[in-house]
Amino acid sequence: MKTNAKQKDKVVIKYYKSPKRQQSDLQILRNSYKSFSMDKKMNIPKNNNEITQMRNRNYATEYLNLTINKKLTKTDFCKSSQISINSLNKGLESLDVKIKSKKTNKITVEEDLKTVKPLIKKIK
Question: What superkingdom heads the lineage (predicted)?
Answer without folding.
Answer: Eukaryota
